[in-house]
């Protein structure tokens, strides 16, 4: 039919070929099309042809637009100032301390950074005072943390039984943590008084005729320090464990009782294994507190020299630097104390990162 119409048009036109070219094209239907990546047809010479090639200015505008809308740029005012302050005053100071520990700075002389060596670290490992302080620090770290966790867990289990005045007991147990090391040291200095302290008075009342000199005897002073610190921080462990116990579904307690498990067996086999995260979190915090026991010992002794038998790395570091003027040696002890703290915190942070909680 279309061929017939074309023949008739050619008969009535003089230059039918050229004149009917447009009509032929119109009659032939839509022009050739291309297909986009999403399957939509795009006429030749349409949008793509009209858009033309992207220019360098368009790319820069798009990049600036994306940068202005990025979360990174928008969050800069919130995290950059504290990041710079922390980097300069904390990690910058640690780096400077490391540099001083490699010099021979002492007294009022300026450090000589042209001759750096590890002499102070070698001196530390040949110093009996440093070895003794390191042993006391390790004992304090382990004993204080373990006893604090056990006492805190027992208190949390007792409070979790729905006893009367639960909030009152919880506040009483947690209250010592709000005290400073200075107050705690003065309080226990009175408690450990040989003549009229409450501890020895209680021991004499139960038949102990010759109670120990808690602060004056090197055999008991570290134990006395650990007891005082456990008294102050076991409430923190209790709160952490209590929150973890309240998060365990009550159905597990009921299922263990239905299976005939005793209370001790239920907690040991069912409940305590689920407190692993709470135990690790509390343990890291308590270890950091133990490494910061300098304030307590300084207040207990009233000076840089703690009672015999209770010298730790923190007190020795301050004594070497500020009492004897051995700045480089004190800096070396500080770096080793920092590495000890890092060894405590780094595994915990690594575990949190792998669990996606950091």
UniProtKB/TrEMBL annotation:
Compositionally biased region (Low complexity): 31-44
Pfam families: BPD_transp_1
Domain of life: Archaea
Membrane topology of this protein: Multi-pass membrane protein
InterPro entries (alphabetical): ABC_transporter_permease, MetI-like, MetI-like_sf
Localization per Swiss-Prot or TrEMBL: Cell membrane
Keyword ATP-binding: no
Chain ranges of the ABC transmembrane type-1 domain: 134-350
Annotated transmembrane regions: 72-94, 138-159, 171-191, 220-245, 266-291, 327-349
Keyword Ubl conjugation: no
One Gene Ontology cellular component: plasma membrane
Record protein name field: Carbohydrate ABC transporter permease
